[in-house]
């Protein structure tokens, strides 16, 4: 909890102060649209925008794991969509980023031939997000790699049925007898997939073999993966709201049946993953020099084992990581502390791109509340799993029991170096401490979801008159550092409900 000298604070209402309105309106007029995100401050290990502000993100995942590999644009009761109503919902809930799945299966159904219709739909959804103030993390998603393995991710042409012997096909050894398959190599009937735990599918001979072939560039498969990323980057290079390229969701460590050492924490990161990330990053950089490249290590690792970030540039990369229990055995605070060590060693930023966001019992709800407090305390951005879990599919309305945890106040942009921030769910009180940077004329922006502050809010600032207030929209409070602040100054803010 912050300690603020209230006696020196200024109580601000929710309207522009003095003559600031004209100046603030002018600043936003001169700087229309969303600020570009293309840099990591390697001293603070935080993402910064084009104005030098430290940026924080709260968001959710939007991924379609079956044909047509994208969410429909129109909302229909019982069908999870991603269209105008959805992005407006996310905006109103105070979220500012979406990790949007760009299935390789949907994008390249025939090898060497990209499905432009599919790509155009994802582009349209990205633009809709931009129109509602949401950033997009372009994500190539996979779970158990392919439909041949009861999963999804790579195109159907990727996996060949003769890669392993007939008696070792999926899901051997989880089942002593492999599943029968149809003419496409998919388990038949499909219901067989429900008889095995999908997460344990990674330990099967067939899945390990396929990942090994990707990492070893068998038949040019890693070349094809890198080429798909070049295609995506060429599509998104001009989009202002793209916060980065997430190379591959939850990559498995590789062919552990051929090389059991890959199961040792950290080994796969530098032995097989690092090469693929560099390969894809090299292709991305042929068409896009600026967008941040987000990379993941093995999900089960305690600490990363990377020798370096993609292409060795921590200022242009972000470590993407997840927290679930299992496979993580400790608390979320332990994971956040360990990933901070990764950031310091690799001199880059880290973002929690998946954690549990769905309804559950009291223990689960408390776990989400604890996760929100822990990420605030560590000043870590997060993207929860997943959008369709946030609302009632019949009514289309958010679950209030969930929203009270994730729909919360936070600093989206800080004009200086953030020192700490927190939000109390019980009192709906937000606190921020940062050191101002007099070289930044862009405002600090605080997201204050209307549902959290239904009757408005009051703002206390110390030192007195150090910040000037401007209400940008119904969820965003902009605070411009006063021109009287000539040097780096510690500034404290409290926002409380009326």
List keywords for this structure.
498 residues, alpha/beta, 8-stranded parallel sheet, 5-stranded antiparallel sheet, 10 helices, 20 strands, 25% helix, disordered N terminus
What can you tell me about this protein's structure?
It is a single chain. By secondary structure, the chain is of the alpha/beta class. The chain has helices at residues 20-30, 84-92, 104-107, 116-131, 205-215, 221-236, 267-284, 332-346, 362-378, 400-406, and strands at residues 10-12, 37-41, 46-49, 54-55, 58-62, 97-101, 135-139, 242-246, 293-295, 317-323, 349-355, 382-384, 410-414, 416-424, 429-436, 444-447, 457-462, 467-473, 476-481, 490-497. The strands form 4 sheets. The protein has an 8-stranded parallel sheet, covered by helices on one side. Strands 1-17-20-15-14 form a 5-stranded antiparallel sheet. Strands 4-13-16-19-18 form a 5-stranded antiparallel sheet, covered by helices on one side. β2 and β3 (46-49) form a beta hairpin. α6 (221-236) crosses α7 (267-284), α8 packs parallel to α9 and α9 runs parallel beside α10 (400-406). The chain is globular and about 75 Å long. InterPro entries: GH, GH5_C, Glyco_hydro_5, Glyco_hydro_b, Glycosphingolipid_Hydrolases.
């Amino acid at each position: 909890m912050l300690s603020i000298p209230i006696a020196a604070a200024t109580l601000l209402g929710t309207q522009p102060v003095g003559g600031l309105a004209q100046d603030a309106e002018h600043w936003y007029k001169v700087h229309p649209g969303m600020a570009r995100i293309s840099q990591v401050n390697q001293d603070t290990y935080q993402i910064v925008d084009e104005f030098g502000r430290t940026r924080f993100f709260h968001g959710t995942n939007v991924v379609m794991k079956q044909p047509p590999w994208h969410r429909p644009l129109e909302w229909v009761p019982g069908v999870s969509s991603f269209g105008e109503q959805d992005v407006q919902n996310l905006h109103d809930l105070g979220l500012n980023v979406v990790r949007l799945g760009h299935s390789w299966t949907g994008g390249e159904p025939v090898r060497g031939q990209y499905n432009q219709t599919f790509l155009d739909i994802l582009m349209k959804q990205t633009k809709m997000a931009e129109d509602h103030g949401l950033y997009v993390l372009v994500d190539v998603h996979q779970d158990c790699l392919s439909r041949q393995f009861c999963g999804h991710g790579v195109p159907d042409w990727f996996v060949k049925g003769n890669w392993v012997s007939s008696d070792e096909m999926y899901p051997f050894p989880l089942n002593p007898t492999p599943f029968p398959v149809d003419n496409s190599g998919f388990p038949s009937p499909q219901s067989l997939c429900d008889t095995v735990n999908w997460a344990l599918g990674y330990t099967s001979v067939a899945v390990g073999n396929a990942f090994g072939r990707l990492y070893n560039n068998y038949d040019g498969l890693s070349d094809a993966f890198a080429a798909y990323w070049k295609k995506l980057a060429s599509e998104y290079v001009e989009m202002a709201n793209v916060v980065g390229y997430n190379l591959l969701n939850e990559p498995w460590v590789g062919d552990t049946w051929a090389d059991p050492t890959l199961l040792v924490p950290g080994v796969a990161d530098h032995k097989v993953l690092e090469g693929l990330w560099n390969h894809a990053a090299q292709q991305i950089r042929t068409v896009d020099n600026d967008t941040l490249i987000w990379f993941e290590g093995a999900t089960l690792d305690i600490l990363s084992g990377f020798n370096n970030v993609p292409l060795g540039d921590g200022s242009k990369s972000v470590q993407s990581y997840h927290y679930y229990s299992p496979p993580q055995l400790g608390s979320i605070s332990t994971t956040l502390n360990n990933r901070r060590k990764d950031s310091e060693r690799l001199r880059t930023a880290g973002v929690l791109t998946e954690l549990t966001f769905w309804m559950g019992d009291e223990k689960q709800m408390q776990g989400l509340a604890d996760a929100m407090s822990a990420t605030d305390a560590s000043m870590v951005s997060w993207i929860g799993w997943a959008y369709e879990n946030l609302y009632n599919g019949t009514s289309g309305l958010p679950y209030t029991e969930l929203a009270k945890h994730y729909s919360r106040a936070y600093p989206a942009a800080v004009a200086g170096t953030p020192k700490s921030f927190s939000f109390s769910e019980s009192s709906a009180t937000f606190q921020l401490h940062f050191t101002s940077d007099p070289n930044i004329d862009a405002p600090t922006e605080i997201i204050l979801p209307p549902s959290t502050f239904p009757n408005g809010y009051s703002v206390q600032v110390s030192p007195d008159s150090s910040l000037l207030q401007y209400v940008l929209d119904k969820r965003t409070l902009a605070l411009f550092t006063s021109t009287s602040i000539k040097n780096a100054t510690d500034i404290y803010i409290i926002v409380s409900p009326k």
